[in-house]
Amino acid sequence: MTSNFVKAAIRCNRRSRLLVLLFLVATLSPPDRLFALPSNNTGESVDVTYHSTVSEVRLVFFATDEHNHNVQQLQKDDFAIVDDERVIREFRSFTRSASVNLDVVVMIDSSESVLPHLQQVTADVSQLIFQSPWSSGDLVSVISFSGMEAHLLCAENCRTSFRADQIVPKGGATPLLDALDLATTLLIRHRQPDVWPVILLFSDGDDTISKISFRHVREKILASGTQIYAIDAGNSRQLSNGTATLQRLAGDSGGRYMGLSDGPVKVLNNVMDDLHSGLLVTYTLPKSSSEFHSIRILPTHNLNLQFRCRCGYYSRRVGSARQEDGP
Q1: What confidence category does residue 144 fall into, taking pLDDT thresholds of 50, 70 and 90?
Q2: Whole-structure pTM value
């Protein structure tokens, strides 16, 4: 039968052979590779969104004791995960995030409301990039945003290519949510199983002009597994809508909220301590009728342990692909 099929395929005309080839590609390709790649009339690259089914949950989390100190000797039987009200205690793997590479996007708000603090923010970002104990496989990108749009200052190799004079105090409006959408898209594009996506957001949390909604950005962040460390460049001691926005973004993603007024040393130490002391656990996706799975982590022995992680994830993963220019 196979021999007859091959002979018939050889006798097909050019169009038929193309159809046979397309059929074989579709048959052999994995499900998460099958997505449309539309092109525009100019031949330029086009971003598209695809969905793939998640079969394994990868969760980065943090454990602290009653004194808020990181717990270094945590064992996998010291905690249980409640995934969509199902208790998970059987894990595929459990390791420290220090063995996982980082993909970090640093976001700098250079809008009008942050201008009085921009010099300090720039100094803190420079110190973070050039003096932090990065691993050789870590990626660092930098985005600034103000006015009508966000600007990618350097991508992936900012540890060697970033310059402080790239951050221009432009003032103007604040497209915070649009900039977060761009940063998350960058992380999704080169997502790898052994890479931990992180956003370090220096802003006062105010948004005055974005086209993207908060709900859309929040869902995209949770779907991508990105954790946000929000450093409040406004008055963090006075509750405002901007502060509430930063606190929710950080809390829901499993990151941390801090104030720029805490001082650059404390802020940077807290960020880097987290990035190198996180824990990574994987487990089989539990069955559920809901696309969104809420997550909680509970102690099993020491009730003084406290855990921090993202508030949930989507069982259908959202991704982004770029169509490359073809011949």
Answers
A1: very high
A2: 0.78
